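Give me the 3D structure for Translation initiation factor Sui1.
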Amino acid sequence: MSTLVYSTETGRIKPQPKTIARPKGDGIVRISRQTSGRKGNGVSLITGLDLDDIELKKLAKTLKQRCGCGGTVKNGVIEIQSDNRELLKSYLESQNYQVKIAGG
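Predicted structure for Translation initiation factor Sui1 (104 residues):
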């Protein structure tokens, strides 16, 4: 199968960007801890938030400031570079989210 890259009539053909659809959550925000693939350093993963990318980044910024550490947003999951799950849970509950701590 070949794809059209260049046409003499229109010039270079740019590929269309692919959009990734996030699965809908069940309304429960889950906070888990992950250390695998991170050289032993743990991160808190926050999943299940039904927000768009801009709102996720704003919430991640607030959570990072609250914990005093770094973090990022990847594929609809907020990663916070610490094990402050109780602090994250209390803040998210104050923002009217239903929160569960997942994992051990």
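Residues 90 and 96 are 10 Å apart (CA to CA). Let me know if you want a second pass.
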